[in-house]
Amino acid sequence: NDCQTQRNLSDTGREQARQIGERLKKADLKIAAILTSQWCRCTDTAKELGLGPVTAEPGLNSFYQGIVPKQATLAQLREKLAQIDGGDGITVMVTHFVTIAAITDIGVSSGGMVSYNPQTGEARVIGVE
Questions:
Q1: Integer Cα distance of 63 and 120 in angstroms
Q2: pLDDT score of 128
Q3: Whole-model pTM?
């Protein structure tokens, strides 16, 4: 809960988030929810997207360095993913490299995006311009 003890979002990161938000707006996607890790860097990114209200989702937290338990965190995320059917639109999730990789087997750098279908397990990198 203390952002002073965490690696925070840089000005570059804030700009990347705004650009991603603009790209998603231009795609005219219906957004059902915006979920984020409770870490300050992710919460700030989710807000900077400018897509709507942001909700903290503990299953998106980073388990790198063992601050939260990996298996329990991933179980929470898998439970959340199982609840998403896409009928109300897409769910945007802001999380960490280790979390994305654990679910999708894809690694992306900061500012990257992955499209993931929880029903089929299909995942692919979305190019960021």
A1: 25
A2: 67
A3: 0.91
**pLDDT tens, residue by residue, 32-85:** 999 999 999 999 999 999 999 999 999 999 999 888 999 999 999 999 999 998
Q: Which two tokens stand for residue 43?
A: 């919460």
Round to whole Å and give the CA distance between 25 and 118: 22
Q: Are strands 123-126 and 113-116 parallel, antiparallel or unpaired?
A: antiparallel
**C-alpha–C-alpha distance, residues 12 and 14, integer Å:** 5
Best CA proximity match to 42, nearest among 128, 116, 117, 110 = 110
The helix/strand/coil state of 65 is helix
Cα 15 off chain centre by: 16
Q: Measured between alpha carbons, how far is 54 from 44 in angstroms, rounded to an integer?
A: 10
CA-angle at 31, arms to 23 and 49, nearest 5° = 45
